[in-house]
Design brief:
The protein is of the alpha/beta class and about 375 residues long. It contains 13 helices and twelve strands. The mean pLDDT is about 95.
């Protein structure tokens, strides 16, 4: 992999390699874009097959955070960290403290949070060395478990998508097929149930399904049957890539809106559902409640203020649907365009400011 060629082609700003022999730390910080502000993105710990795989994952995830933060209206750029190692066997306190010192050395260009393979307790250890971390447990200003805010944002996104598909946002009587009933999806089901939606749920965890059936009167189906059920809204809240060649022909939903990441197996599947007239809420727009929530910690966390910001996911999706119709493009492309337009607008204003400054200096 020619690293500088890749960075140039996709306009990355910085790639940082972090090593600490005593603790076994091997980490890669990727900063994609800081036009809108410091790069915010979590720290993932994973057993990569090669160092190149780890680099590619860090770069991919960092770019995704640029778009997610921009689309969410946050004044933050995109970055991500991957730590190479088994999160069950290779962790130690010294590792995360050493990593915290590397983050501190970036002097605020990058702010981290928990991600796959890391926990709030790991963020506490990082916080011993730097203030540029969110999602801690035991320090003032922490927001705690982001699942409820993520669920609230998905709920608001489903309402915006329902309005786009059916002409009004009411969920009363709407049949919603929820794939996966983990922490985020269970909280989502509670919102949907309170508004009178009929729930159809599935999960490989039978206890999670029973909990939803008992609490919300949901109908349970086999995991393989969720795609073909008679429903108005399909909410993927577990696995990625569930919008694919197998599922699209049997989906009956008019709306696809859920909390799962990477819902489209390929971009081509986004094109197909657009052609079929299915309203799709791009995943990184609708599931941004968690990152919006932790971002509020940066200004002194206030739950009511954070919730108001999460509610703006409704408006963000309305904007995505507007761009989709304006430019006759699928919503997944419209979401990227919305994020890119916001970043470019700030770049243009910054460039104009610098030109004005240079003009003033030249006249002195």
């Amino acid at each position: 992999m020619e690293i500088f060629t890749h960075l140039e082609n996709y306009d990355y700003e910085q790639l940082v390699f972090c090593q600490d022999k005593n603790s076994g730390l091997k980490a890669i910080i990727a900063i994609h874009d800081t036009t809108l502000g410091p790069a915010l993105g979590g720290t993932r710990m994973w057993t990569y097959e090669s160092e190149e795989d780890a680099i590619v994952d860090a770069l991919r995830l960092a770019k995704g955070m640029t778009y997610k933060n921009a689309a969410a209206g946050l004044n933050l750029g995109g970055g991500k960290t991957v730590i190479i190692g088994n999160p069950r066997t290779d962790k130690n306190p010294e590792m995360f403290r050493a990593f915290g010192r590397y983050i501190q050395g970036l002097n605020g260009r990058y702010i981290t949070a928990e991600d796959v393979g890391t926990t709030e307790q790991d963020m506490d250890l990082i916080h011993l060395e730097t203030d540029f971390v969110t999602g801690t447990t035991s320090y003032a200003g922490a927001s705690g478990n982001p699942s409820p805010m993520t669920a609230y944002g998905v709920y608001k996104g489903i309402k915006a998508s329902t309005k786009e598909a059916f002409g009004n946002e009411s969920l009363a009587g709407k049949k919603v097929a929820v794939q996966g009933v983990g922490n985020v999806a269970y909280a989502l089901c509670e919102y949907l149930h309170q508004e009178g939606a009929e729930l159809i749920v599935t999960d490989i965890n039978k206890n999670a399904v029973k909990r939803a059936v008992d609490a919300f009167g949901a109908k349970a189906v086999d995991p393989n049957d969720i795609y073909a059920v008679d429903c108005d809204i399909y909410a993927p809240c577990a696995l990625g890539a569930t919008i694919n060649d197998h599922t699209i022909p049997i989906l009956k939903a008019k709306v696809i809106a859920g909390s799962a990441n990477n819902q489209l197996q390929t971009t081509n599947h986004g094109d197909i559902i657009h052609e079929k007239g299915i309203v799709y809420a791009p995943d990184y727009v609708i599931n941004a409640g968690g990152v919006i929530n932790v971002a509020d910690e940066l200004v002194g966390y206030h739950s009511e203020r954070a919730m108001k910001k999460v509610e703006m996911i409704y408006d963000s999706l309305e904007r995505v649907f507007e761009i989709s119709k304006r430019d006759n493009i699928p919503t997944y492309v419209a979401a990227d365009r919305m994020a890119e337009e916001r970043i470019q607008s700030v770049r243009n204003s910054r460039s104009q400011f610098l030109l004005n400054e240079q003009h003033i200096l030249s006249k002195r």
